[in-house]
Design goal:
Oligomer: single chain
Largest sheet: 5 strands, mixed
GO molecular function, one term: oxidoreductase activity
Number of strands: 5
CATH architecture of the largest domain: 3-Layer(aba) Sandwich
Protein name: Thioredoxin domain-containing protein
Radius of gyration: 25 Å
Organism: Rhodomicrobium udaipurense
CATH class of the largest domain: Alpha Beta
Domain Thioredoxin: 55-250
Number of domains: 2
Number of helices: 14
Strand content: 5-15%
Pfam families: DSBA (PF01323), ScsC_N (PF18312)
CATH topology of the largest domain: Glutaredoxin
Order of helices and strands: HHHHHEEHEHHHHHEEHHH
């Protein structure tokens, strides 16, 4: 509730400005006298004080409108998103689990508690649906420790143990360079190679490329799932993931088709 009230403050300011602006303009044009302007301002202030719930209503309406605009912008970039994935197909192959007809993409951070809770749901989906494919997008936005863990994960991918590392890293708790290297050692990786690969320009570049894709898709929180034409933010459970996969399998993916038919797409597939 405190958070809701805090969020309402900007709305109150916006509301006050929206009311004050026309009042000031009219006052300047002599529509209202200075005394009348003060009286109107007092009426508005008294009303807001007597009915503070309106501030929450304004904030809610503002957030819904902003979310709708954001969703529209995200949907418009879906073909670009799938084209970017196609362009990184070789680099993302080691981060891809399954060989299915429907692809689930997850943006995640190793220090994200919601991602940790979502992992068993994703694993359950992979076990239950052999026709689904999951692409794990290393998206370390929470801390430097997250970024360090992602680089070690990509190094693990080079040794063919990405998913094993992925699951063990979440089980380890707090992610940072030290804990990631410890996990890498525990699963039997060549540690000299891990250290070299995690610090390589190639690894840095892939993390940056994935980060840019996420930003272009307005991904500002983890986990975020993309399946077909639908973006699902937050820790979706098995049933929710299963439904969006089944819907995509039934209805197809318009954005995928658009990306595939875009100029240059065929050339990318050949390369």
């Amino acid at each position: 509730m405190k958070r809701a009230v805090a969020l309402a403050v900007p709305a109150a300011m916006a509301l006050s400005l929206s009311i004050a602006a026309p009042i000031a303009a009219r006052a300047q044009s002599d529509t209202f006298t200075e005394g009348q302007t003060r009286s109107i301002e007092k009426i508005v202030k008294d009303y807001l004080v007597s009915h503070p719930e309106i501030l929450l209503e304004v904030q809610d309406a503002f957030e819904k409108k902003a979310e709708a605009k954001r969703g529209e912008a995200t949907r418009s970039r879906m073909p670009e998103f799938y084209k970017s994935l196609s362009g990184l197909k070789a680099e993302l192959a080691p981060l891809t689990i399954g060989q299915g007809d429907v692809t689930l993409v997850e943006f995640f951070d190793y220090n994200c508690g919601y991602c940790r809770h979502a992992l068993p749901e994703v694993v359950k989906l992979l076990d239950a649906d052999k026709k689904v494919k999951v692409v794990f997008m290393e998206y370390p936005i929470l801390s430097q420790g997250s970024a360090d863990a992602s680089k070690v994960a990509l190094a693990a991918a080079k040794q063919g143990k990405y998913f094993e590392f992925h699951k063990a890293m979440f089980a380890a708790g707090r992610a940072n360079k030290e804990s990631a290297l410890k996990v890498a050692e525990q699963i039997g990786l060549d540690m000299e190679k891990v250290k070299a690969d995690s610090a390589s320009p190639e690894t840095e570049a892939l993390v940056a490329k994935i980060g840019e894709i996420g930003k272009r898709m307005f991904v500002d929180g983890t986990p975020t799932f993309v399946v077909g034409d639908k973006v699902t933010p937050g820790a979706a459970d098995y049933d929710a993931l299963k439904k969006v996969v089944e819907d995509t399998r039934k209805d197809g993916c318009k954005a995928c088709a658009e990306a595939a038919s875009a100029p240059g797409a065929k050339d990318e597939k050949k390369s």
